[in-house]
């Protein structure tokens, strides 16, 4: 850690006092070297007397009041040692020649005064503030800070209090610390419009930006006890759809910004952490993920290490990322050190969670009625092979499998310790974090994450050179059943007991698959992730900077799936297998840049030019071991008698780009931005390797026109727009090569090669043309802010992993298809300071997005693989299904519209009913109220989803050996019955075909609109700022909850994760945050 | 101005850095040109087809699933797709059916890739080129043969071009059979008579198809087409080869047995052979067991009943399973291979062809070869349909649980609509003789028209 001596002093003495002590070197000439552990004062004094001619005078009773002391000193002068001895003692001392007199402390001895004070005023972003008035309360002396935010006083009175005031800051009183460089951090009372946020290669704010950018700050992030940082974005950002794939710990989060730009594939926004592109996709391994999902690499990121997340949306904001900006860009910035007193803060919470909903399924009585009726309808007799539930199992048993398999309480624990501080020139932050989450499954599953982060920033005294270095390291481990237990909810309610009398899994003579066998087969993933970066700049001359951003990111991933014998019926002589996956991805990036900023008058001009060199290497090796003698050794590859390599790969991705950006701000009224980028990517074949992207943005702050100066209502108004082209290269490596891969096993003692992929040597860049117009208004001194965006994006030359029928030998190929997709939409955001009184602050925000997606054209759609998926003029989010016409009262089977009137219901002609599966609108609303020591906050997320696949994805025809929703009891029983539920049948009378068609019909979709209380927080400040002990600056206790409740009519488990995977968890946590300075 | 120069410098330095994004092919894979540049690697590309067939469990699946559709097996799986298959109640979403479809077309792609690769290679030896062309065309014929047997009209895939192959419509069965015939004729002229190893040298390992293998499939094809004389001729060509029936039934399925015409070598760690690993029961079956009626229909003294059928009794219930493969798992060294073609079938095939041609003596002679080995009395003096029925009956006992022969034979002879209704009851519809074209395929290629009844 780079610390000036002065800062080292402050840092250590005030903060790590409990650990060790340090004393500055001045005072008397004789020095001492001592080490004491909880030594009595008498002992310390005796030691000093032994080594010097000083003598202590004290009475025994007085000394008995003293506390034992611990310290270690090296060559320390006497006065330092005395200070250590008397630190926070109820005793004081005075020196008379060689005699030291110890007394009971009566009053604090006044510290000798110095008379000089130098300092600096900065905002919470550590940016210097000019023109701030500093006055001394006692003497009335006053001065203003200079352009560097600095001030200087001489001849301070004995006890001085500084009053810090200014037009745009919250007034503040601070005690002067004379003879030092005093840093005063003030809250800027600025409008949200002036809050800086991170943009590509720079910073901006809402007032002067021409791009459309949403920002989520640390204060918001810390409200949510989340595992994955991306979860925080749900409901907070307009235009961004955030979908939790599964409620199992470590599950991926799907993000989609402003609709689907690309058919079928590659709609992930680009994720950039501190300037380094980060894989947003799960580390897909050959051996799968736990509980049916894949683990997101962002699990390695500790949300409390994140300072802010910026979502770049339009062409103006994203075009500088060129070929990778098409789906938007998410910039994640980690916390940076801040100048000021060293502070140590600790945050801890623990919580409990359960699933939010259960489906209402048949009880045993009704289930048996269904089964028997099905056999009766079939005219068949149940046999032990097809009806063990009726003939072999206890028909009086009843189990609610949802409670048994998903009904446990999960725990979430999080702890974080942070130390930060620094001087004017050098700042640091260092943190340690731990997080653990378990599951609602029976058994010991869950994940844990250990993280550490460090950032050091430094600038030279002349401020020409600036350097910031960050590193975060995470160790993440997740253990889950290989298969999600959710699908086991369809077990018959009278299924046998889970355990035999001897405690082993009960297989009921092989007549069922014990669902707990899934808890035997484990999938463990372990990831370590180092994210490190450096950002340096040097001022060549006034306004001209040369900069360099560089980073190295390494993900090491170890997957292990162990399938012991115990996961199977022992009677089937199962064998144990284990699979091992090792993978690492490393990304090295370097971005040299020049930036030029010049102000002339009220105008500002800035230019940025730079280049990106990126190299990403990936290696993976997946192996399988079989022939284990013992299940205890499934973690060992060596213990396997046979080992085979399932897959191996060594991939390289290189990327180069040059970019430039010009910005012009004329009189704070007219804003222009131009960006241009040329990119090359190794993912393309020789001919198509390079492409050019760019954008133009313009803004007009009309409230800065004279016309608006007189009125008070409208405090801010800006019209802006942008147009540009971005691209997409999410296609995987080497797809232009015809590659052969070694098969797992040899044949005729020879290794053999098979073609791994269909290749296409000539695919080209997909391009998204983005258009944007927006209106930003601030009313009543920006108390109410309103933003309305309209976007209009079109994608052409679609580059997709084109699904192919099996007759091609493969399931897909990368190719360009002549299709044009249009995404348009309105986004509206409102931010209001509803109440702002001395006692109560109430802030609200609301956002809503109305996305529209449309397939504009698609050459030869009717002969393509997409003929049965898309319709020109309709959104991509549709499904073509049969039109369900209810149950035929004569036959009791589902019937469907015969669109082509050929007398049959067939896939070729009758899948004509268009079902819209997208979201009509979505958004969120947040209220935060603080009053006195209390703070309340609630965030609601809502979405209008008219159709989503319902429970039928998990349930087959009623009548089979499988439980059903209670609604099936309204089934057809005899000719003439009018109902929506088909007759119970196993095999006969066309019931299975009818039900297969039913699952392929519009009836397999139901409304999945929901309103969810995504997050709620109650926080209480235990210590008021002015009553606390000296070191304790802040102590809060809080309750935080996620997914508190959900309002929905969805027919299935959950409207977000649908019915096949673990629903989201209702998590309620309690904890505290404590800060020492 | 200074800035402008900086900018220009950057641009120039970047454009000269074009090489930065030139990358080498991955070190863990080969590009196609490299594969077909040398004999050894080109052969490895062909062998990969066989390795994947065995690794995918093709032989096993071809045994049990058509066997369930017919009358050979009883289903014990609780999976809906197996239940539907056993009840002849298939839906177009059936994943087992999809699996057959995608796997066979996957091998066809590989075969076409080898055909194109060796045809375009200027550096491989002529002998290897000939042999690999022969093997690939045989494989292509073999896969089309099973596809058309299961699905009826099917798309014919002649090359690796996905642009063409993704838009193919179904060709009528007769066109498919003609295509198979052409491939087999070509394969016969190209393939070596001896079995070859990975270095293309003669070998005792019968795990690459040879000329006789192609002739065996051609004989089957002619029987299917009703061209009895050509079937007789092709079968005779195989029977004149260096093969013989093995008297001890326990040894028929041993690797490289004298009776084997083409086998696949095991590639799954821990297995002896794929069918052995899956078919031999050690407890209550959870996939399939032999149909009890089939077991009961054997003559008590039939050695095939005694040596090729075994049973296990769990909780008082007896389950039968085919015991042609004797070793289930974890043999110290591999003793059996997955059988695809063996000599018995050719005798029965020729017997049928001869009987249809009126060569009754020849037919009896061929039939009795099989009966006598099974310990059954020789038949004599049969004529017409009685003789043909006896031969078909013999196929049922000789070739049960092999290659789905029962299902294919019932369909070939049209007996399927007479035999199965008695067993399957009202579940049986005449349209069940063809599997449905998988829904997923139709959704991706709307040139595909579904079979009637689905």
**CATH third-tier fold name of the domain at 5-104 in chain A:** Phage tail protein beta-alpha-beta fold
Overall shape of chain B: globular
Low-confidence stretches of chain A: 1-28, 109-113
Q: Alpha-carbon distance between the termini of chain A?
A: 18 Å
Classify the beta-strand content of chain A into a percent band: over 45%
Quaternary state of this entry equals: heterodimer
Tell me the major beta sheet of chain A: 22 strands, antiparallel, barrel
State the share of residues found in helices of chain A, binned by percent.
under 10%
Written account of the structure:
The model of chain A is unreliable at 1-28 and 109-113 (pLDDT under 50). Chain A is mainly β. Among the domains of chain A are: 5-104, Phage tail protein beta-alpha-beta fold (3-Layer(bab) Sandwich), CATH 3.55.50; 117-186, Immunoglobulin-like, CATH 2.60.40. The relative contact order of chain A is 0.10. Chain B is mainly alpha-helical. Chain B has one domain: Serine Threonine Protein Phosphatase 5, Tetratricopeptide repeat (Alpha Horseshoe). In chain B, a hairpin with a 2-residue loop joins strand 5 (309-314) and strand 6. In chain B, helix 6 runs antiparallel to helix 7 (126-151). The radius of gyration of chain B is 25 Å and the shape is globular. The model of chain B has no long low-confidence stretch (mean pLDDT 92).
């Amino acid at each position: 850690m780079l610390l000036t001596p002065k800062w080292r002093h402050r840092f250590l003495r005030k903060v790590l006092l409990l650990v060790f002590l340090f004393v500055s070197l001045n005072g008397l000439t004789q020095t001492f070297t001592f080490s004491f552990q909880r030594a009595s004062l008498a002992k310390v004094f005796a030691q000093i007397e032994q080594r010097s001619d000083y003598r202590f005078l004290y009475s025994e009773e007085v000394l008995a009041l003293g506390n034992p002391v611990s310290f270690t000193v090296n060559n320390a002068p006497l006065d330092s040692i005395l200070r250590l001895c008397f630190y926070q003692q109820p005793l004081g001392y005075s020196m008379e020649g060689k005699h030291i007199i110890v007394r009971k402390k009566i009053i604090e001895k006044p510290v000798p005064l110095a008379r000089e004070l130098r300092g600096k005023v900065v905002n919470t972003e550590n940016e210097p503030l000019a023109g701030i008035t500093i006055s001394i309360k006692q003497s009335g002396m006053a001065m203003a800070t200079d352009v560097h935010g600095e001030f200087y006083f001489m001849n301070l009175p004995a006890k001085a209090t500084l009053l810090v005031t200014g037009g745009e800051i919250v007034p503040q009183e601070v005690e002067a610390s004379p003879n030092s460089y005093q840093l005063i951090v003030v809250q800027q009372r600025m409008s949200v419009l002036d809050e800086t946020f991170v943009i590509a290669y720079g910073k901006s704010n809402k007032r002067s930006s021409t791009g459309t950018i949403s920002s989520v700050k640390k204060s918001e992030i810390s409200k949510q006890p989340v595992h994955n940082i991306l979860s925080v974005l749900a409901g907070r950002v307009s235009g961004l759809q955030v979908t939790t794939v599964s409620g199992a710990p470590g599950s991926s989060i799907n993000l989609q910004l402003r609709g689907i730009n690309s058919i079928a594939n590659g709609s992930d926004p680009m994720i950039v952490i501190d300037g380094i592109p980060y894989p947003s996709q799960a580390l897909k391994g050959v051996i799968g993920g736990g509980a049916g999902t894949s683990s997101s690499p962002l699990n390695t990121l500790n949300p409390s290490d994140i300072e802010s997340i910026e979502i770049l949306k339009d062409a103006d904001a994203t075009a500088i990322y060129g070929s990778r900006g098409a789906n938007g860009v998410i910039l994640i910035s980690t916390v940076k050190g801040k100048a000021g007193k060293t502070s140590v803060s600790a945050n801890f919470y623990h919580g409990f969670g359960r699933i939010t909903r259960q489906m209402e399924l048949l009880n045993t009585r009704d289930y048996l009625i269904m089964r028997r009726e099905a056999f009766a309808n079939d005219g068949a007799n149940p046999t032990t092979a097809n009806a063990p539930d009726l003939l072999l199992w206890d028909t009086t048993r009843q189990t609610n499998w949802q409670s048994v398999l998903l009904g446990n309480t999960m725990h979430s624990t999080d702890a974080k310790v942070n130390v930060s501080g620094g001087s004017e020139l050098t700042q640091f932050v260092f943190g340690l974090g731990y997080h653990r989450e378990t599951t609602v499954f029976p058994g010991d599953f869950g994940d844990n994450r250990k993280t550490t982060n460090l950032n050091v920033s430094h600038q030279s005294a002349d401020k020409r050179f600036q350097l910031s270095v960050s590193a975060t390291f995470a160790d993440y481990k997740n253990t889950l059943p290989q298969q999600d237990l959710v699908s086991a909810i369809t077990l018959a309610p009278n299924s046998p007991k889970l355990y035999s009398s001897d405690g082993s899994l009960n297989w009921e003579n092989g007549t069922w698959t014990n669902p707990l066998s899934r808890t035997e087969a484990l999938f463990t993933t372990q990831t370590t992730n180092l994210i490190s970066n450096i950002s340096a700049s040097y001022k060549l001359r006034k306004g001209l900077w040369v900069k360099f951003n560089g980073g190295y990111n390494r993900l090491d991933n170890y997957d292990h799936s162990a399938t012991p014998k115990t996961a199977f019926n022992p009677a089937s002589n199962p064998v144990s297998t284990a699979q091992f996956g090792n993978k690492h991805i490393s990304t090295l990036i370097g971005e040299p840049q020049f930036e030029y900023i010049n102000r002339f008058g009220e105008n500002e001009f800035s230019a940025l030019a730079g280049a990106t060199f990126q190299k990403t290497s990936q290696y993976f090796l997946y192996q399988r071991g079989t022939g284990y003698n013992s299940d205890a050794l499934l973690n060992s590859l060596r213990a396997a008698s046979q080992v085979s390599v399932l897959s191996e790969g060594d991939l390289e991705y290189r990327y180069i780009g040059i970019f430039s950006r010009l910005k012009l701000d004329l009189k704070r009224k007219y804003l222009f931005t131009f960006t241009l980028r040329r990119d090359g990517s190794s993912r393309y074949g020789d001919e198509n390797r390079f492409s050019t992207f760019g954008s133009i943005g313009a803004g007009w702050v009309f409230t800065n026109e004279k016309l608006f100066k007189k009125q008070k209502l409208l405090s801010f108004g800006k019209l802006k727009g942008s147009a540009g082209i971005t691209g997409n290269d999410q296609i995987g490596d080497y797809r232009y090569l015809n590659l052969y891969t070694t098969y797992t096993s040899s044949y005729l003692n020879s290794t053999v090669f098979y073609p791994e992929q269909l290749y296409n040597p000539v695919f080209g860049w997909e391009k998204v043309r983005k258009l944007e117009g927006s209106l930003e208004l601030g009313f009543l001194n920006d108390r109410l802010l309103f933003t309305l965006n309209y976007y209009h994006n079109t994608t052409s030359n679609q580059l997709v992993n084109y699904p192919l029928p099996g007759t091609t030998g493969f399931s897909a190929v990368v190719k360009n298809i002549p299709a044009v997709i249009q995404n348009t939409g309105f986004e509206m955001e409102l931010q209001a300071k509803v109440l702002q009184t001395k006692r109560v602050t109430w802030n609200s925000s609301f956002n809503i997005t109305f996305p529209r997606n449309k397939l504009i054209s698609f050459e030869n759609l009717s002969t393509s693989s997409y003929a049965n998926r898309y319709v020109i003029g309709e959104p991509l989010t549709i499904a073509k299904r049969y039109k369900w016409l209810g149950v035929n009262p004569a036959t009791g089977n589902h019937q469907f519209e015969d669109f082509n009137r050929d007398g049959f219901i067939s896939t070729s002609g009758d899948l004509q009913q268009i079902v819209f599966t997208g979201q009509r609108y979505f958004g969120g609303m947040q209220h935060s109220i603080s009053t006195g020591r209390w703070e309340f906050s609630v965030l609601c997320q809502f979405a209008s989803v008219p159709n989503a696949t319902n429970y039928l994805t998990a349930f087959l025809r009623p009548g089979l050996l499988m439980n059903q929703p209670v609604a099936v009891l309204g089934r057809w029983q005899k000719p003439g019955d009018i109902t929506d539920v088909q007759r119970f049948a196993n095999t006969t009378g066309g019931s299975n075909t009818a039900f297969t068609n039913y699952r392929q019909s519009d009836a397999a979709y139901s409304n999945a609109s929901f309103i969810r209380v995504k997050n709620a927080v109650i926080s209480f400040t235990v210590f008021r700022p002015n009553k606390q002990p000296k070191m304790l600056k802040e102590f809060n206790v809080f309750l935080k909850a996620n997914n508190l409740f959900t309002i929905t009519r969805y027919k299935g488990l959950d409207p977000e994760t649908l019915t096949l995977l673990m629903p989201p968890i209702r998590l309620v946590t309690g904890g505290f945050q404590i800060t020492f300075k | 101005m200074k800035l402008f120069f900086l900018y220009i410098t950057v641009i120039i330095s970047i454009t000269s850095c074009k090489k930065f994004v030139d990358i080498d092919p991955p070190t863990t894979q080969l590009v196609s040109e490299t594969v077909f540049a040398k004999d050894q690697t080109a052969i490895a590309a062909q062998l990969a087809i066989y390795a994947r067939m065995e690794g995918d469990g093709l032989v096993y699946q071809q045994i049990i699933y058509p066997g369930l559709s017919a009358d050979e097996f009883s289903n014990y799986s609780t999976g809906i797709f197996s239940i539907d298959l056993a009840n002849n109640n298939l839906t177009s979403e059936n994943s087992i059916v999809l699996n057959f479809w995608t796997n066979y077309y996957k091998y066809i792609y590989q075969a076409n890739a080898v055909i194109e690769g060796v045809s375009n290679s200027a550096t491989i030896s002529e002998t290897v080129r000939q042999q690999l062309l022969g093997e690939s065309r045989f494989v292509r014929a073999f896969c089309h043969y099973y596809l058309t047997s299961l699905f009826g009209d099917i798309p014919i895939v002649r090359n690796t071009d996905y642009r063409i192959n993704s838009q193919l419509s179904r060709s009528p069965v007769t066109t498919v059979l003609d295509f198979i015939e052409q491939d087999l004729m070509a394969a016969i002229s190209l393939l070596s008579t001896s079995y070859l190893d990975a270095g293309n040298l003669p070998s005792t390992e019968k795990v690459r198809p040879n000329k006789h293998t192609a002739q065996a499939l051609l004989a089957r094809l002619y029987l299917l087409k009703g061209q009895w004389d050509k079937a007789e001729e092709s079968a005779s060509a195989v029977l004149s080869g260096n093969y013989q029936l093995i008297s001890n039934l326990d040894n028929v399925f041993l690797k490289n047995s004298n009776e084997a015409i083409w086998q696949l070598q095991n590639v799954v760690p821990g297995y002896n052979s794929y069918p052995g690993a899956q078919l031999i029961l050690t407890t209550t079956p959870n996939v399939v067991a032999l149909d009890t009626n089939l077991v009961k229909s054997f003559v008590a003294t039939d050695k095939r009943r005694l040596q090729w059928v075994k049973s296990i009794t769990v909780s008082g219930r007896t389950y039968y399973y085919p015991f042609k493969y004797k070793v289930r798992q974890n043999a110290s060294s591999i003793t059996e291979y997955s059988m695809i073609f063996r000599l018995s079938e050719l005798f029965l095939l020729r017997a049928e062809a001869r009987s249809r041609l009126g060569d009754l003596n020849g037919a009896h002679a061929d039939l009795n070869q099989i009966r006598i080995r099974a310990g059954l009395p020789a038949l004599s003096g049969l004529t017409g349909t009685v003789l043909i029925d006896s031969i078909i009956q013999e196929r049922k006992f000789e070739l049960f649980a092999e290659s789905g022969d029962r299902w294919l034979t019932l369909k070939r002879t049209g007996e399927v609509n007479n035999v199965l209704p008695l067993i399957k009851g009202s579940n049986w519809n005449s349209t069940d003789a063809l599997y449905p074209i998988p829904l997923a395929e139709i959704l991706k290629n709307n040139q595909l028209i579904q079979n009637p009844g689905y």
